[in-house]
Specification:
201 residues, mainly alpha, 8 helices
Length: 201
C-alpha cells in the first residue's frame, strides 16, 4: 500500500502540474520561476503570528467540516475507506495520501493555479468565489446519487467556505504562498484518515 501511495502521489502531482506548467512556460517563464508563480514559496509576512492564528482557526473549521462530512457519508466508500479499520499499520500510507496524493495536487491546482490566474483577470474576490465554488462542487457532486441533494449541497457549502478561507489566507496573509492552505488541507486529510484507520465514525 505504501509503494502504491508514493507512486500515485508522484503521478497525481505531475498530472495536476502539467497544465499550469505549460501555461507558465508560454506566458511567464522569463518573469518568475514556476514555483514562485504557482505559490510554492516562502511565506512573507511581517506578522507571522497573524498567519499562524488564521491557519489554526481555518484548520479547526476544516476539521469540524471533515467530521460532519464524514458522518454524512459514513456508509459510503470514500477516498479514506481503504484505510478503514487498519489501525496504526496504515499510518505511513495515510500520511503520504493526505499530504502528497490529495492536498498538494488540489492546492497546486485550486489555490496555486486557478485562483492566481483568475485573480489576474477578475480581481481577488471574484476569483476566490469562483475557485471555492468549483472546489465545493467537486467535493459534493460525487456523492449526489448516493446521499441525495440536501446532504450534497451541505458538503458543497462546507467545502466551498473552507476553500474561500484558504484562498484568503494564502493571498491576503501569506503573500501568495500556498503553504498555509496546504498545511490546513493536509492536516485535515490526516485527521480524516485517522478516523477511518480506527473506525471512529
Amino acid at each position: 500500500m505504501l509503494v502504491s501511495k508514493i507512486i500515485s502521489s508522484i503521478i497525481e502531482i505531475i498530472l495536476i502540474s502539467f497544465i499550469p506548467f505549460i501555461w507558465w512556460l508560454i506566458s511567464t517563464k522569463k518573469k518568475e520561476s514556476f514555483f514562485n508563480w504557482i505559490g510554492l514559496k516562502r511565506i512573507k509576512n511581517k506578522n507571522k503570528k497573524s498567519v499562524l492564528i488564521n491557519t489554526i482557526v481555518i484548520l479547526l473549521v476544516f476539521m469540524v467540516v471533515s467530521i460532519l462530512t464524514l458522518y454524512m457519508v459514513k456508509d459510503i466508500e470514500t477516498a479514506t475507506s481503504e484505510f478503514k479499520g487498519l489501525g496504526i499499520s496504515a499510518l505511513l500510507p495515510a500520511l503520504i495520501y493526505a499530504i502528497f496524493n490529495t492536498s498538494l495536487p488540489e492546492e497546486l491546482f485550486f489555490r496555486g493555479f486557478l485562483l492566481k490566474r483568475l485573480s489576474n483577470k477578475f480581481g481577488f474576490t471574484i476569483a476566490n468565489v469562483i475557485q471555492s465554488i468549483i472546489f465545493g462542487l467537486l467535493h459534493g457532486i460525487m456523492f449526489f446519487s448516493l446521499i441525495g441533494i440536501v446532504k450534497s449541497i451541505i458538503i458543497i457549502l462546507f467545502t466551498g467556505i473552507v476553500a474561500y478561507a484558504m484562498g484568503y489566507i494564502n493571498e491576503k496573509k501569506a503573500n501568495g504562498s500556498i503553504f498555509p492552505s496546504w498545511i490546513i488541507h493536509a492536516i485535515s486529510n490526516i485527521f480524516a484518515s485517522i478516523i477511518a484507520m480506527f473506525s471512529i465514525i
